[in-house]
Amino acid sequence: MSILKDKRILLGVTGSIAAYKAAELASTMTQAGAHVDVILTRAAEQFISPLTFQSLTGRKVYTDSELWGGESHILHVGLGHAADLLLIAPITANTIAKLAQGQANDLLSITALAAQCPILIAPAMDIGMYENPATQENVRLLKERDILFAGPAQGRMASGLEGLGRMVEPNEIIGQTRKILGKSGDLAGKKIIITAGGTQEAIDPVRFITNRSSGKQGYALAQAAIDAGAEVTLISTPTALKAPVGVSFLLAESAEEMLNAVLTESADADVLIMAAAVADFRPAKIAEKKLKKRDGIPQITLEPAPDILKHLSSQKSGASRPSLVVGFAAESRDLLSNAAEKLKSKKLDLIVANDISAKDAGFNVENNRVILLYADGQKEKLSLQSKYKISKTILKRVASMLNKEKVFNTGLLSIAKTEK
Ligand code: CTP
Question: Which of 135, 203, 214, 234 has its CA 20 to 30 A from that of 48?
Answer without folding.
Answer: 135
